[in-house]
What we know:
Elements (H helix, E strand, L loop, with lengths): L1 H22 L6 H16 L1 H18 L6 H7 L10 H22 L10 H23 L7 E2 L2 E5 L7 E2 L1 H24 L6 H23 L3 E3 L6 E2 L3 E2 L4 E2 L1 E4 L6 H19 L1
Antiparallel strand pairs: 1-2, 1-3, 4-5, 4-8, 6-7
Helix pairs in contact: 1-2, 2-3, 2-5, 3-6, 3-7, 5-6, 5-9, 6-7, 6-8, 6-9, 7-8, 8-9
Amino acid sequence: MLALTLLLSLLVNLPVGYVVWKKQSLTVPGGITTAGIMGFLLFVIHPLFWTLLIVFFGSSTVLTRYRAKDEIKQEAMTLAEKGGERDSKQVLANGGIPGFIAILILIQQSSIPILDISDSLVVALVVAFAVVNADTWATELGVTSSKAPRWILDPRRTVPRGTSGGISTKGLIASFLAASLISLTYSLFLVAYGQFDVSLPFVVILGGLLGSLIDSFLGATIQAQYQCPACKKVTEKTFHDACEADTEPYRGLAWFSNDLVNLVSVVVVVLVSLLLW
């Protein structure tokens, strides 16, 4: 049975890896290798976990390309630390916690499990995917909003699109829809396993929304931010490509990167969900 599972995991992950490579959605070899190992691991432990990974990565890849050539989005993304091609650090920041929880589930079961998919650890894993999906959708769709985002620490103040800590109505709706998509995927598995609990989808959706807001709050407070001396824009980058100028420290902790913000947001919401559930 184990050998069959390993073979099946290879068969389903190899085509995905090929598509990712052709679409240049991950860096080579770091991003593809890390994602490949994670996809293989999650499928072997349980198809639910792999399905959630594919839903997250597939939808985020599509949205990265949504209005990618629009001037508004291009300008906003010049302020972001990284672009649409994800490296190994981004893969671990977004998928590391779900992968770690999946390993804990495997250790707890002492074998490849036939899961109680309403178990608290499973719920926490699903919530983790809801958080990273909500944050990604909020970023990719929020920057295309026709209205400038509001500063999360002072909603009366507007900030440039792409500013860490900026929130918009479109971004919040995107977070809700992203978390709902993960919740729907999870709910289908619950129904298939005869374990449906009406409260579980709401836990996942609320977790996704909370994580997105925590991400924005951390981005506005302790994430490393820099200012371009030429145009005075605040960015996550140490070099502002648009002005071809080295940036200067502006606020936050120098070591607290966007990847770390994503990771901490997931950890906080996962711990909260475990305590509440």
